[in-house]
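User:
I study polymers; will you set down one protein's sequence and backbone structure tokens?

Assistant:
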Amino acid sequence: MNCRDNESLILAERDGALTTEQRAALSDHVATCPACAQLRTRLHTALDTYKADVAAIPVPDTNQAWRDLQSRLHKPARKRPLAPVIWFGAPLAAAAALTFAFFVTRPITSTPSGELALTPVYDPSMIAGADYVEAGDPNASTMVYVDKESGWLVVWATDATDTKTSG
């Protein structure tokens, strides 16, 4: 056997995959070949060092690692930032100011029973008016009325066919 064949046998020896005849032939060759003996020694030393290093690696407790992971996943959520409060705060403050201004500017009077009541704001210059009213039918009768208390403009129109004609 040559050194190349024995190299594969040296690798297979460490795995325990050699037959009795192959192991005997390898021992005879390694006894006479210093290169294969050195390869065999280096391989055994490297594998022994590797096994020692693997054995020295601490293996964490899987149950404790799982509990730690679960506690990190189930942590309570962070407190929400104040940004939404600020976004809604300004419009709500404006609405409150408008409401306050509306109720403060209205005069308060007392009723005959002594209760306080808000009186409608009445400005005579704000009474509605109309210069011209046109009905759909030229023979229709129209009437325009302005309510002085509320300032509403009321327009009535009747069809010409509804009016009674004297004959």
Remarks:
- Residues 3-56 form one domain.
- Residues 34-56 form the longest helix (23 residues).
